[in-house]
Write a structure and sequence with these properties.
mainly beta; 82 residues; globular
Amino acid sequence: MPRYDLANAPAHGTVSTDMSGDPQFRQPVHCADPTNDGLVYACDRPGNRVQVFTTEGEFVEEIYLQTKTLGAGAVWDIAFFS
């Protein structure tokens, strides 16, 4: 699955892919929220990413956000809107 680096996305909205990420969370996750479509989104704050899994625990994809942050990271929580 692709990994999206939104922090380095050009103004026209294209995102770059990066397959060099660590498969492990750097600390305990800071949120783990299920959706109505059977996916679970897990916030890896110090890793600056959201990882997506099925409810059975199968990895689906990960999305990187603000990768140049230091210390506390960028992904604290997640919200879904319908």
